[in-house]
Design brief:
The chain has helices at about 1-25, 75-80; strands at about 30-40, 45-55, 60-70, 85-95, 105-115, 120-130, 135-140, 150-155. It has about 160 residues and is α+β, with helices and mostly antiparallel strands.
């Protein structure tokens, strides 16, 4: 009975993963800027803090920099480790920032994998029309249980 229940849970999880994977946007530019080792591991890769740039696909001249922990060791080297929900976010304007017509008030624009298919760091764009700003929020999500971990950064709208 225990094996049947475990199989049903695994099948439900895989079905959820397949549905979730289709929901993650893939049309964003993601660039690894670099990484710094934080903990030596005798076997496998060292633990690191990684910095990636995420460009907003709809708003030119906005770059968001996310730093996050990557677990090393044997599991990290094989890509099956779950990274901790510790991260930071900073977004900058690299030129004039204008909002295109019809831009939704809230939209997920990027995702960074934090474990094998289950956990992601998702980047959302929110528009604040009252203060003419674009707010970016990075949150941690898991397939079954979410996390309150988050970081926020804002960029002023400088044009029309």
């Amino acid at each position: 009975m225990k094996h049947i229940l475990t199989g049903l849970i695994a099948a439900a999880s895989l079905a959820g993963i397949a549905g979730f994977a289709g929901a993650v946007p893939s049309a964003h530019a993601e660039t690894r800027i670099g990484a710094v080792a934080t903990n030596f591991r005798l076997l496998g890769a060292d633990d690191k803090v990684v910095v990636e740039r995420l460009d907003d696909p709809k708003i030119p001249n906005v770059a968001c920099y996310a730093s996050f922990a990557r677990t090393g060791g044997v599991k990290g080297s094989l890509g099956v480790a779950t990274d901790p929900s510790r991260f930071a976010l900073s977004c900058i304007a690299t030129g004039p920032v204008t909002l295109p017509p019809g831009l939704p008030a809230k939209k997920q624009i990027a995702a960074i994998s934090a474990s094998f298919l289950v956990k992601h760091f998702n980047l959302y764009r929110l528009v604040d029309p009252d203060h003419k700003a674009v707010v970016y929020m990075l949150i941690s999500t898991k397939l079954i249980h979410g996390s309150p971990a988050n970081a926020v950064s804002a960029v002023p709208v400088t044009g029309g």
